[in-house]
Amino acid sequence: MTRATKILAATTAVGFATSIWLYLDNRSLRGDRDERPAAVEPAKATEPVAKLGERLDKPQLDGAKSATPTPSLPSTKDESRLERRARNTEELGLKFGRLDGETEEEYRARVLPLISLGLVAPRMRLTEMRKQAEVQAKITPAQSAQLDKAFEKVYDDVLDYTNKAIGDGQLSPYERNVAGWLDYAGGLGGILTGANSQIGKILDPTQVKALAESGFEWGEYLGVNAPWESLKPPPPRPK
Q1: Is the pTM of this model over 0.90?
Q2: For residue 53, what are the CA distances in angstroms to 56, 62, 224?
């Protein structure tokens, strides 16, 4: 698998991964907030200062013990890699799978805003990188518009391919299917090959080389800017 193909395969999951991270991070913060003990006001002194000083000057009796127990952290159970993997898979299914009785419209209203939110920053970053790379490669506005037109077909192919993979269970929020992920990545490689062919018809070899030397990757750009918000919801969780 080429480097560009790996980049496209990885960035197709950027929206999902970022959304998952935002969800888990927010959940952790909420947990910390709920578990944090309420602030306790210090007790007001009711004993006269003079008597308190006299009592403090007296030596403590032998064998006297402090009424305040020594603080200690709660014991935590070590989580194995298998247990952590199972927990992450379950959390993924609860957040990005279909809930019991949830319709496709309800799923879209619940999940797709998270995907959009997760893609805002990388889309802005890569759009700016593309502008700078096109200036360096001396790409004309007309050529840039031609590229955008060609990418519409690429995005349609990626969405159709991904929707089929989700519908067939190759990509599932309910289970860890590494073999399915690899097959999916291989299919994305074929789509990227077609995209590169279209790019080569619009740009001359000198411009293609200049883009590569700038560090800009079309695979990364296409993976982030694909309209993932238009994906179809996954099927309900298997019984």
Answers
A1: no
A2: 5, 20, 70
Structure tokens at 85: 């993997």
Q: How far is CA 18 from CA 15, 114, 115, in A?
A: 5, 9, 8
- What is the torsional sign of CA 156, 158, 159, 160? positive
Domain ranges of the chain: 3-23+82-228
- In whole angstroms, give the CA distance from residue 135 to residue 137: 5
Burial of 103 (0-12, 13-18, 19+ CB in 10 A): exposed
pLDDT in the model for residue 5: 43
Tokens read off for 45: 């002194």
Instruction: Return the bridge partners of 98, or none.
Output: 236
The CA angle 216-217-223, to the nearest 5 degrees, is 135
Question: Tens of pLDDT along 178-218?
Answer: 999 999 999 999 999 999 999 999 999 999 999 999 999 99
- pLDDT score for 89: 87
Q: What is the largest CA-CA distance in the chain?
A: 94
| Side chain identity, residue 186 | G
Q: How far apart are CA 80 and CA 225, in angstroms?
A: 37
Rg of the chain's alpha carbons, rounded to an integer?
Answer: 28
Q: How far apart, in whole angstroms, are the C-alpha atoms of residue 127 and residue 201?
A: 22
Residue ranges in the chain whose pLDDT is less than 70: 1-77
Buried b vs exposed e over 8-31: b needs ≥16 C-beta within 10 Å? bbebbbbbbebbbeebeeeeeeee
Q: Which two tokens stand for residue 152?
A: 């519409």
SS3 143: helix
Contact 189, 9 (CB under 8 A): yes
